[in-house]
Amino acid sequence: MTKPPASSAESEPSTKTVPSSKDESTGADVYIAETNHRVSNSLSMVAAMLRHKRRQVATAEASEALLEASARIDGIALLHKHLYSLEPGAPVELISFLRSISARITESLGTRIEVRGCPAEVTGHAATDIAVIVTELCLNAVKHAHGSDPDACISVEIGSSDGTHLFLEVRDTGPGLPEGFDGSAPDSMGMHIVGSLAEGLGGDLSYRNDSGAVVRLSFRRPPR
């Protein structure tokens, strides 16, 4: 008996394309970028909702709490957007990064913030901690020193004394720290956050008065 001819499905080799590792990596990168974009937009939306709610509350205390919350979330949204725009593991140029963060804080709080200093590159993790510290110190300055003063200014400076250590200095033009101020016993959530992050950076915090309050964080330059 003659064997029937093989069908085309049996005789022709499979032409199914197997995705390469490069294709899979590109797809993953696109997915991560899209997710990060959505996260950043969602955070900005939450901050906008808090600012809107602030106009509806009856007490100054509630209004202040919502203002602080919206400023914090705004800062995190911008921080997230900046970091996901970098290549993984790429260093962050601190001055330009803090200028972006400070501009967003100014939009939220209405207080002018000037950032200056020497060029310095740090890891994304260190940049995140430093940005949160700056945000909290600026919020604290507005709350306790400046209030609604339209001429108020907060100065943020980055410097290096010996090449291996950096310092961050935030100063305001308010009445200064109260007599007997103890920086080792913070009385607000914001200053607790500052102390905790400074410890994580292996840094030292110091406080003084010099035509206003001055907070200085000295820390070893993080390896890149």
From TrEMBL:
Enzyme class (EC, first level): transferase
Keyword list, A-Z: ATP-binding, Kinase, Nucleotide-binding, Phosphoprotein, Transferase
Domain Histidine kinase/HSP90-like ATPase: 125-223
Domain of life of the native organism: Bacteria
UniProt xrefs under Pfam families: HATPase_c_2, HisKA_2
GO molecular function: ATP binding; protein histidine kinase activity
Catalytic activity: ATP + protein L-histidine = ADP + protein N-phospho-L-histidine
Protein EC: 2.7.13.3
Biased composition (Low complexity): 1-17
Region Disordered: start-end pairs: 1-26
SMART domains in UniProt: HATPase_c
Alphabetized SUPFAM superfamilies for the sequence: ATPase domain of HSP90 chaperone/DNA topoisomerase II/histidine kinase
PANTHER family assigned: ETHYLENE RESPONSE SENSOR PROTEIN (PTHR41523:SF8), TWO-COMPONENT SYSTEM SENSOR PROTEIN (PTHR41523)
This protein's name: histidine kinase
Lineage: Bacteria, Pseudomonadati, Pseudomonadota, Alphaproteobacteria, Rhodobacterales
